[in-house]
Amino acid sequence: MLETALLSDLNDRSREVFRRVVEAYLATGEPVGSRTLTREMSEKLSAATIRNVMQDLELLGLLDHPHISAGRMPTQLGLRLFVDGLMEAGPVSSSDREMIEETLGDDNRDTGVMLDRVSTALSALTRGASLVLMPKQEAPVRHIEFVSLAPDRSLVVLVFADGRVENRVFTPPPGHTASSMREAANFLNAVAEGRTLAELRRSVAHEIEASRQKLDSVAAQLVSSGLAQWEGESSDPRLIVRGRANLLAHELADLDRIRTLFDDLERKRDIAEFLELAEQGEGVRIFIGSENKLFSLSGSSLVVSPYMNADRKIVGAVGVIGPTRLNYGRIVPIVDYTAQLVGRLISGRKG
């Protein structure tokens, strides 16, 4: 990789100057001058010597400066090299661990409520925007009922084997009656036992065809309409986003980029790509700037980690998004620790 080659080409002095520039920039968000580093270097160097090293690092594409008289700041390439080769991620602090564990402490809490609280806690801890991808709900369906609300609006009540109940409003086919709704519910309850919504969706077309003598056309349309609604709104993963105000606080001078980010989030109906980012390997992944394939906002960084169920299958992810000058050394272990705890809770494992 280019970053690995660049790092191996740097001598000890260049590495230290580069590392201290990046660490100071991540702490302050400001370009770092040579005089600042003269007080921090392990060997005594003049400001002129440090400036020469900075110029060499700039020629390599690792540092940049906003204008002629300013100090240096890391480029996207420089941040990637730092994160991959020089960053020292410490353990999760006791106070951070305590806050996370308090959020996840109730094993009986509804998954959606628990993950919403996880997202809120991550945002508070990291002072960024948090993203939590909920797992697909795969419990078998226990009972289905249709309720007419108006000629063009109906309610489907869905009871799952794990005790979860979902109420969804949908548009029924024209001409439906109370009788056709009862017939559709009876039909679905007869074939739904032991099946998840996804399995029921796949088999319903075949079942309708086989039972066409028993179902009138309106009831058949009602079945299809109801299932389409459930498949689209209940079975897909759900993205929880918290902490928008934190991003605005970081980047008050560039509100347009922040608006672009959240427009992307709100338009993202198919969010499977977020899970795909995490599925490419266990552990934390870091996307800096334009590496962030999910969003068009190039000035952001995404730290994301998947969590698994009891079968070691990736079912969701937790992450933090913020400006590229995130405190990676602190946020990476927080995201990793949170993902591991969520996975244990989702799968029922202890420890």
From TrEMBL:
Any one GO BP annotation for this protein: negative regulation of DNA-templated transcription
Alphabetical list of Pfam families matching this protein: HrcA (PF01628)
Domain of life according to the entry: Bacteria
Domain (Heat-inducible transcription repressor HrcA C-terminal): residue spans on this chain: 114-332
Keywords: Repressor, Stress response, Transcription, Transcription regulation
Cited SUPFAM superfamilies: GAF domain-like, Winged helix' DNA-binding domain
Functional note: Negative regulator of class I heat shock genes (grpE-dnaK-dnaJ and groELS operons). Prevents heat-shock induction of these operons.
Family: Belongs to the HrcA family.
Protein name: Heat-inducible transcription repressor HrcA
Organism in which the protein naturally occurs: Paracoccus denitrificans (strain Pd 1222)
Gene: hrcA
